[in-house]
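Protein modeling request. Please complete all fields; requests missing the sequence field cannot be processed.
Requester role: graduate student
Desired output: 3D structure, token encoding
Chains: 1
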Amino acid sequence: MNRNTLYTILTAAVLALLIGPIGVAVFVLGFVHGDSPCVLCWAQRTAMVLVALTGLLIVRYGPRPRYIGMGVLISAFGVYMGLRHSSLHFARDVGQGFSAEILGAHTYTWSLFIFWVCLVMMGAMLLAVKDGEAAGEGPRELRPPGRAALWLFLLAVAANMVQAFASTGPPPFMGQGDPVRFSFNPRNWVWSTEEWRPSPVSLRGRWAIEKPDVALAPADPAGSPLAGVPAMTVSRRAKLALPLNGPVTDLAYDAASDRFLLTTHNGVYLTDGTLGRVIRHTVVDVGYSVDLARFSAAAFLDSRTVLAMAENKSYVVLRESDQADAAANYRYFLESPGAFQEASRSRLTTVRAKMMYVMAAAFDPAASALYTVTVPNAASKRLVVSRFDRRDMTLAEEFSPALAEGGPLAFKDGAGSLDGFYPTAAEFHEGRLYVLSAAYSTLLVIDPVRRTVADARVVPGLSKPSGIAIKGGELLIVTEDGALSWAH
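Delivered output (488 residues):
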């Protein structure tokens, strides 16, 4: 490419960057409409100014590798900041977002696009420059468009300094996460240090939630926030003697077929009504398509259809089949591909429970609804019950249960929350959601209509319970190591 043509294109690109996103942001959105940048917006705008400066250096001194490389690094930072900012709002409902819209897209998403274009242009420039072409080239005289770009750059930087001082202030003040309207009047300036507050440092940011670990749940009922919870009677105990491929993660029962459903980290097992014989099983390829991680909950959706759910709220629905094509099912299953057909594999989407894992799920056949219950973590400790419509597995309701007024339960002195419970199993029976907590070895009876905990019982002698089922009016509990307990 002719060198003058290259400089002309680059000068036009710098002018477009200064007049467009940088100039419009500060003069039109800022000074005219009072739009102030947040701390993330400032990072993106600063990177745009530096990209424009890099372009001016290339126009003045030639396409030297150090300048192009600096432009690539700054643009890559801008793409990251655009993704980081946009990711905070991508999951919102249609039309929702932050700050002004331009052609239907909010400004922070335009930032992502602009930096991507800058990266493409830097790559094209590298392709256009011949090997060693820039070596030894000295400074060149700026032509009128280049001089115009330089003066416009200085004007844009000065205007941004004015806006930054008014909306951000001098150190130690910095911008706000939700900035106030820009004003030239000092009485309306708000200088804040709120963004200096300490926060955990992690590559995943607020998504760095620790995985569930039942071993961390205190099993001693004496630590429960509830006062005077009566104990259930354990009538007998036994041990599973089934060929499972790992620790038991959940248990469910279907009265119509008199069969139990057991899950392990990636195994699904149907047994007879005595838990003495495996009738049908498979090991699911949990890495295929949707990441199923490790199963933590299971339920019968009907007598021939089961659901296995991972702690990350991804799930797979399996339907029994004696005519399953093992070859076609190879990609879905690691063992027994001819025992089931995969009906669906997807993810549950929550609101209140978004930052929490789940280890308990139950199905209400009368309402055709699936319930999940969260486990606490360092960032969020509240107990959240979520209900999903079976027809489309879409969230229908979420609530944090409270104690029933006038009921048999009360908090101990100094306690007033159910947040310490660690639900690892659930069962729906006769209009009630039965939730077993590994913390305090307590069975909570939840009324989903009134959104309250109607009753509770301590189950003595439990260690890492992972599943419950109700058969013949008796509660059957299984632990990770396959220990069984019958209680009433």
